[in-house]
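2024-03-11 09:14:02 INFO queue: dequeued item DUF6533 domain-containing protein, len=301
2024-03-11 09:14:02 INFO validating residues
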Amino acid sequence: MSTIPEVAEYISVTRVVQITRICQLAPYVVMFYDHVLTFDQEVEHIWKSSRSLNTAVFVILRYSGSAVALLSVFAFLAQAHASNDLCRVFLLLQGWPICFITWLVQLILQMRLYVLYNNSKKILYLTGGAYIAEIVAMSTIVVIANVSTDAVNEPAPGLFICTNLNTPKIFYSFWLAPLVFELILCLLAIRIGIQRSKDHLGPALISGTRLVNVIVMGNVMYFVGVLLSCIVGAAMLKNLSSQWLEVPGGFALAVEVIAGCRLILHIRGAACEGLYNTTITSTRVGVQLQHSLPKSDLDEA
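2024-03-11 09:14:37 INFO prediction written
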């Protein structure tokens, strides 16, 4: 006969399992919904545009990120016949796609900042050095967690879900490394935005000004999303048991994929709009000049 503490523990584990499954399914639904909302922009600015590095990055983010999220959903919802060894393999590999997608989006942000700072070598060395340090820190923490992994497929009788029973205490710092690096990128974006806002730009640079504003705001808004996901992830892993390990991961992946894709779409949309507005403005100026200039004797004849 089960005692009251055992029943309470079983109920607690059941609640964590249900929350984990919901938190793996919800981010994928959000990613799919965002894909539907932005699919017209994707067709216009990605598939109908010339192929470039941004095109390849967008495809990797959108479709590889969605595939990873969908695989996680199936893995956490259908595990009744998975062995402990299979769960261990899944948990060992699960963290790396999130890392790679995070690093890919951050590479985009660094390229944008590098252009905003007029190809400054100082900015390149600063962000590049911090980027490498972040990769080393995140990789080290993931490897430490993988070495100590104690995976089970049945944390409680009748409850089937891959669970790591031995998450290292320092694993919460996994979320601190990208948070620090994103803070550096955000401060650099705000700094260049303030500098550009003080410049007195003529009418011919209006489209360029809008392009700069889109880049700066994109970096700042992306940082806000990453900030929230990193704080929640670090706080949960710091204060809760290892059973909650898989809860914040899906949302972090969704933030990276959605924000990264929207960064590319916004910059391409702003560039196309700026080109269109510049053409219209030039045409109107030409017409106005044509009407305002005096007619020559040859024209009158």
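2024-03-11 09:14:37 INFO annotate: Residues 200-208, 275-301 have pLDDT under 50 and may be disordered.
2024-03-11 09:14:38 INFO item closed
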